[in-house]
């Protein structure tokens, strides 16, 4: 559950609220977004992508995110949220003032 996530993974999960419903998110780009926002831990000695993959692995393992791997490299390529997890993500993002949802 969201409440059991370590704080750094909570932030990574909440960041996914930025993306539209049913959007396939490029994990490499997502890793760089997380890095720019200061969400990734100190990654000296590791690439941003490697640390992003570690975070993604943990979110997938906890069934928070659905992700697809590249057959050859076994790296996470894309991810998305199940509809129910997206609702939780949006609710928590609003509750934690992580982002503001503006509707037309």
Automatic annotation (TrEMBL):
<feature type="domain" description="Disease resistance protein winged helix">
    <location>
        <begin position="19"/>
        <end position="88"/>
    </location>
</feature>
<protein>
    <submittedName>
        <fullName>Putative disease resistance protein RXW24L</fullName>
    </submittedName>
</protein>
<dbReference type="Pfam" id="PF23559">
    <property type="entry name" value="WHD_DRP"/>
</dbReference>
<keyword id="KW-0677">Repeat</keyword>
<keyword id="KW-0611">Plant defense</keyword>
<dbReference type="InterPro" id="IPR036388">
    <property type="entry name" value="WH-like_DNA-bd_sf"/>
</dbReference>
<dbReference type="InterPro" id="IPR058922">
    <property type="entry name" value="WHD_DRP"/>
</dbReference>
<dbReference type="GO" id="GO:0098542">
    <property type="term" value="P:defense response to other organism"/>
</dbReference>
<dbReference type="InterPro" id="IPR044974">
    <property type="entry name" value="Disease_R_plants"/>
</dbReference>
């Amino acid at each position: 559950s969201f409440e059991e996530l370590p704080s750094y993974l909570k932030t990574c999960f909440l960041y996914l609220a930025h993306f539209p419903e049913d959007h396939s998110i490029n994990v490499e780009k997502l890793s760089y977004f997380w890095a720019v926002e200061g969400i990734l831990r100190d990654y000296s000695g590791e690439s941003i992508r490697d640390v992003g993959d570690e975070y993604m692995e943990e979110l997938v393992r906890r069934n928070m995110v659905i992700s697809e791997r590249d057959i050859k490299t076994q790296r996470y390529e894309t991810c998305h949220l199940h509809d129910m997890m997206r609702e939780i993500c949006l609710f928590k993002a609003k509750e934690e003032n992580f982002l503001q949802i503006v509707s037309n």
